[in-house]
């Protein structure tokens, strides 16, 4: 019979014996430095958030699953006697001292630092898996500046303007005039559903997941079985962002105001 301690030992050994560390050789020093050099928790979290975004997708997905498991362990502290501090102290050495790298005395003394990092990862993990809002804002500003520069360069180029006019006429769906859709109303497209579009009035509480739920309700009978089984996500396309898969908890009125020229499309979520 497998005991709890044996299962925990196997999990720690699996993490410790990975061919390369979960947080990668390249970024491990940065994880340590952000705690040693930054004193404010808010700034530590911002730096930690950016480091998580830099990880390869496989590492990030594995870290997410691992941290979700650790969060469940801590949530059952009353039964297993493993609080956040205990879990962090036990897990940290296996994340920051890896196969092929001998731990020296200085690194062993840094156990408190690495345990603090693990505590932050477990406690604040819910904010770590989406692109930070300040980065989204920066992308919007960069794209808007690029579009403005492009407009100025093309203003007197008649040949390019003719080409753009021709391309516009060839589009499958002509652009709707601004007056066609009232302020605060977006038209959401869902090409794979039986009801392919819907105008939705936004308010201060409308979230992306509310729009997905409304489409799911409207299309639950008419959609194909394959479509029903897919995980859907709402995408912001065009305007000043290119393409952005929205977080389910994103407040849509704020996103709409930041990019009123965008189109809104429901598509299967990338695996």
Automatic annotation (TrEMBL):
Annotated SUPFAM superfamilies: GTPase activation domain, GAP
Domain of life: Eukaryota
InterPro entries tied to this protein: RHG40/28/18_ubiquitin, Rho_GTPase_activation_prot, RhoGAP_dom
Keyword Metal-binding (UniProt): no
Annotated Rho-GAP domain residues: 1-129
Single biological process term from Gene Ontology: signal transduction
Keyword Metal-binding in annotation: no
Entry-linked Pfam families: RhoGAP, Ubiquitin_RHG40_C
Protein name listed in UniProt: Rho GTPase activating protein 28
The organism of origin for this protein: Strix occidentalis caurina
């Amino acid at each position: 019979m497998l005991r709890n301690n044996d299962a925990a030992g196997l999990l720690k050994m699996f993490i410790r014996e990975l061919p390369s560390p979960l947080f990668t050789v390249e970024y491990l020093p940065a994880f340590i430095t952000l705690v040693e050099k930054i004193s404010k928790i808010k700034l530590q979290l911002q730096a930690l958030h950016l480091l998580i975004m830099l990880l390869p997708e496989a590492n990030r997905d594995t870290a997410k699953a691992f941290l979700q498991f650790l969060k469940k362990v801590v949530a059952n502290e009353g039964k297993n006697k493993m609080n956040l501090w205990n879990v962090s102290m036990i897990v940290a050495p296996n994340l920051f001292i890896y196969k092929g790298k001998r731990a020296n005395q200085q690194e062993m003394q840094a156990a408190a630092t690495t345990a603090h990092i693990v505590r932050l990862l477990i406690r604040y993990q819910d904010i770590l898996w989406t692109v930070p809002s300040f980065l989204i804002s920066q992308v919007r500003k960069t794209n808007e500046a690029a579009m403005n520069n492009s407009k100025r360069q093309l203003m007197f180029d008649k040949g390019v303007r003719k080409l753009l006019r021709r391309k516009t006429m060839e589009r499958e769906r002509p652009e709707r005039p601004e007056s066609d859709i009232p302020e605060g109303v977006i038209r959401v497209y869902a090409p794979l559903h039986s009801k392919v579009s819907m105008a939705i009035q936004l308010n201060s509480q409308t979230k992306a997941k509310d729009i997905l739920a409304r489409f799911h309700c409207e299309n639950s009978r008419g959609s194909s079985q394959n479509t029903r089984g897919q995980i859907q996500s709402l995408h912001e396309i065009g305007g000043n962002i290119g393409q952005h898969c929205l977080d389910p908890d994103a407040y849509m009125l704020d996103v709409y105001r930041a990019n009123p020229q965008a189109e809104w499309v429901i598509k299967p979520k990338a695996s």
